[in-house]
Amino acid sequence: TFYQAMRYIIMPQALKKMIPPIVSQFISLVKDTSLATIILLPEMLYRSQIIYGQNTNYIIPMFVAIALMYFVVCYCLSVLARYLEKRQA
To answer: For residues 43 and 48, what is the distance between their CA atoms, to the nearest angstrom?
Structure first.
């Protein structure tokens, strides 16, 4: 039947082709979201000033930790996309 053909033949092939572009879109979403935080930059700087006012030793490690988290997320997604593209070929 039509539904059996969709379930067992067409959908597995389509999903196999769709996974790398979906992961790439997710990576773009993460990067675009980080660009959208520029709007929230004054709020982030205000929070960092509060932390900086309490202890001046925490300002650099805080920004380094945020940058490291961003790098890890983007790098892991890129590795996943590369793996899925190689597996598809």
So the answer is: 9
Distance CA 18, CA 57 (A): 46
Single out the residue of 79, 51, 75 nearest to residue 63, CA to CA. 51
What is the DSSP annotation of 27-61? HHHHHHHHHHTTTTHHHHHHHHHHHHHH-GGGHHH
3-state secondary structure of 16: helix
pLDDT of 55 strictly over 80: no
Quick one: CA dihedral 43, 47, 53, 57, positive or negative? negative
d(Cα 43, Cα 81) in Å, to the nearest integer? 33
- Model confidence over 30-50: pLDDT tens digits? 777 766 565 555 666 677 677
How much of the chain, in percent, has pLDDT values that exceed 70?
79
